[in-house]
Amino acid sequence: MTQAETLPIAAPREARPLWPRLAIGALAALVLLPLGVIFASFTDPQGAVWAHFGEFVLPRLLLNTLWLLLGVGLGTALLGVSLAWLTAACEFPGRRWLTWGLLLPLAVPGYVLGFVMIGLLDFTGPLQTTLRDLFGTAPEIPIRSRGGVIAVMALTLYPYVYLVARNAFQTQGRRALEAAQTLGFSRARGFFRVALPMARPWIAGGLALVLMETLADFGTVAVFNYDTFTTAIYRAWFGMFNLSAASQLASLLVVLVFSALALEQRSRRGQRFTPGGRADQGERIALGPVARWLATLWCGLVFAVAVAVPLAQLLAWAWQSRGDLDIRYLGFLHHSLILAGSGAVGVVMLGLLLAYSLRARPGRLASIAGRFSTLGYALPGTVLAVGFYLPMSAIDNGWIALGSRLGQTWEPLLGGTLVAMLLAYGVRFLAVGFHPIEAALHRVTTSMDEAARNLGSSGRDLLTRVHLPLLRGGIATAAVLVFVDIMKEMPITLMTRPFGWDTLAVRIFEMTSEGEWQRAALPAITLVVAGLIPVLLFMRGGEMERRDAA
Amino acid sequence: MQLELSNIAVGFGQSLVIDDLTLALEPGEIGCLLGASGCGKTTALRAIAGFEPLARGQIVVGDRQLSRRGWTLPPQERRVGMVFQDYALFPHLSAAENIAFGLRGLGAARRRHRVAEMLDLVGLDTLAHHYPHQLSGGQQQRVAVARALAPDPALLLMDEPFSNLDVELRERLSLEVRDILKAAGTTALIVTHDQHEAFALADRVGLMHSGRIEQWDSPYNLYHRPVSRRVARFIGQGVLLPGVVQDNHHIRITLGCLPPVSPLPVGTRVDVLLRPDDIVHDDGSPLKAAVRAKTFRGASILYTLELPCGARLLALVPSHHNHAIGEAIGIHLEAKHVIAFPSDS
């Protein structure tokens, strides 16, 4: 072979590509945009309104929010840690079954449990009616109260603490607990002196997530008419059409959220595993004859209140209002599916972009920017709705104004608020979609890329034969998780949906606002069923992990 | 020549990882780059595979120029196979599918045939449908070798092929790999930091230091005829003893007189390399040395001896000559060829 034949068209040496930096920068900017917009609202002080807010509204909002954080924090800690310890370290009847059953509240949105509880326990609800029929009188249950919201939110959010605490109890501290026993500590004292302190960083991490969810929650507090920042933002928006008041409230909420986020980040530093034997193999604490049934009772009670009873009530109501299963219901479902589907596709693309960018250009700055761009999971939907609506509608209005100046009638360039809604979804759920994709991409090592190129495979061929098969699972997981999250999402959809685009969640909001619990049941069941998918996926993943370890 | 690196340099500006490296392999030869970590040996391999561009020089495999300054044929067009340190097997493909990965151009029947041939070559016929995670480390490595050999590359590169395996397996597999490569008639270049591995595998070994090859030679010559102090120190054990070149070109050292070496000016001060097997234990010898340390090695004992003048020596002595530390034992010199380096070099 001659020299000339072996020299193809000059292939320039691969330059360090610029696109990963641009992509990461753009994604980080996407998070910064809504934050910048809401904080910029302080440059437009609405003197009178703000004075009214400061004097009458703000103290109440702060007090309500603090009570809620305190109550939900305590409640989830109590529920999560006690259930985690019982199922991780003790043996009692029904433990195996309840271990998974206690995860199911993850599938029940807080606003669903909220309206079921109100409908169930209210004066006109089935419980009180039955009691009155039987005894002529019934004690009033103050469900529409601060305690009621706290109880409902604790029952829906405790799995965050339960999961991490259980994991910590299982994977570490086993040996340490045994060591404590040889040093003369009883099992019970060992729990408080050894196991609990060792699991503290994880529990704190779970609690921080709970607090962030509490701050972000809109649906549940709306059902209870319990005023917090999220509902105040919504009312400033739709009740008063005061966009800058809404933005200002949103920026205060963001400050609170970042405090919880700081707690979460700090707790991560303490999370170090010490290998300490596996609890599954280890001997569980054999509870006494009474204690074991008490354990069953406690776990069963939580399961019943958080999952079984509300589901039964929902089914009963859905049956009563089965006439609602009509063309309109299909319309809501259709809208939900389309929004969740396009949102999932969009988020998966952004997740792939971010994961590949970080892979192509690793480094300290990139990883900081990458973490920043997944920060959106901490931002409440109401904040994102306001933060994206304002700039998008400004662009649309500018466009329409330009059109009318030219004597034309132009349609809104960004489709009304559709773009704002999709961007808000993207920012809110990027972390959810990014992590499974990143984990999957992590399995494709750079030496695998090089091995493939070495064997004559590159470009598209490399992507379809090596990357895609290895990423498929991660992409599917990401898509399902985001899909379900968007179906359950309420505030962004409610505040930025295009006209006429009512989804299942919006339908629930409207029906519960009017106290029509029965008619909210059918869409609620649909959401719970959709919500079961990721929980089941998660359980299967957990089982697979155990099989791998065995 | 099957592989020729001519004065290659890799890196940017002042920070060259490889500077002026030259080596050549005949068809079917196995070469080995040996050196401490950071000496540039892996970079050399990656440059040959086409993952690193050249700053100077050229790389020729067979009669194709693959790289030169400013131009690099992409890895996928080079027909250079590579076995990676972590094997880089594709986890979603079975052993057979991994081996078939690079056989795209072939028809289905020929591909099947080639895969079977390769599985047979590496002795994994029964494990064809196992996935990487179901294979042991040694089996994974053999799949990686088979995968790299399957497209019949003009050259095979292996990066620290045994570093992920435990010590006992290493020795066995390095002989196995040599047999596989010889059976396939493949020209190969292997990178390692373990001289025993290099000696077991290679026909030619290059000792690398800061981006250059100090000596490119047979294992025998590398051990017995090192061209520099650095090679002498890195390869095998031994000590450097001071001496002086005498008028008959013999070298005088404390232990006696050594046969002449390459002509050095009379009176030159030199350091003479003495291997442990150059010192022979001899009870009748008038020359005595005190035992300062000993390492029992089963068949033999490695003694560290101290001469009256204070110089230290290593001596490999049959195991039944068991002497206590502090004891003085008789020795004499039995150096067939003398390696001497001028003292000021």
General description of the model:
The complex is a heterodimer of chains A (550) and B (345). With 550 residues, chain A is an all-alpha fold. Chain A has two domains: 57-319, Orthogonal Bundle (MetI-like fold), CATH 1.10.3720.10; 321-550, MetI-like fold, CATH 1.10.3720.10. Chain A is built from 22 helices and two strands. Chain B is α+β, with helices and mostly antiparallel strands. The longest helix of chain B is centred in the middle third of the chain and has 18 residues, at 167-184.
What is the overall number of helices of chain B? 8
Structural class by sheet pairing and helices of chain B: alpha+beta
Helix content percent band of chain A: over 70%
Mean pLDDT figure of chain B: 88
The largest sheet of chain A is: 2 strands, parallel
What is the number of strand segments of chain B? 21
CATH class of the largest domain in chain A: Mainly Alpha
Primary descriptors:
heterodimer; A: mainly alpha; MetI-like fold; two-stranded parallel ribbon; 22 helices; 76% helix; disordered N terminus; B: 345 residues; Rossmann fold; OB fold (Dihydrolipoamide Acetyltransferase, E2P); 5-stranded antiparallel beta sheet; 23% helix
Summed up, what is this model?
The complex is a heterodimer of chains A (550) and B (345). Chain A has helices at residues 3-6, 19-40, 47-89, 95-101, 110-121, 126-135, 146-171, 174-182, 187-216, 219-223, 229-238, 243-269, 289-320, 327-360, 364-373, 381-405, 418-442, 446-454, 459-488, 491-496, 504-513, 517-549, and strands spanning 90-91, 285-286. Chain A has 550 residues and is mainly α.
SSE topology:
The complex is a heterodimer of chains A (550) and B (345).
Chain A: H1 3-6, H2 19-40, H3 47-89, E1 90-91, H4 95-101, H5 110-121, H6 126-135, H7 146-171, H8 174-182, H9 187-216, H10 219-223, H11 229-238, H12 243-269, E2 285-286, H13 289-320, H14 327-360, H15 364-373, H16 381-405, H17 418-442, H18 446-454, H19 459-488, H20 491-496, H21 504-513, H22 517-549
Helix pairs in contact in A: 2-12, 2-14, 2-15, 2-16, 3-4, 3-7, 3-9, 5-7, 5-13, 5-22, 7-9, 8-9, 9-12, 11-12, 12-16, 13-22, 14-17, 14-19, 14-21, 16-17, 17-19, 19-22, 21-22
Chain B: E1 3-12, E2 15-25, E3 30-34, H1 41-49, E4 56-61, E5 64-68, E6 71-72, E7 80-83, H2 95-100, H3 108-121, H4 137-149, E8 155-159, H5 167-184, E9 188-192, H6 195-201, E10 204-209, E11 212-217, H7 219-224, H8 229-234, E12 239-245, E13 251-253, E14 256-258, E15 269-274, E16 279-281, E17 288-296, E18 300-306, E19 312-318, E20 328-333, E21 339-342
Parallel strand pairs in B: 3-9, 3-10, 7-8, 8-9
Antiparallel strand pairs in B: 1-2, 1-4, 4-5, 5-6, 10-11, 12-13, 12-15, 13-14, 15-21, 16-20, 17-18, 17-20, 18-19
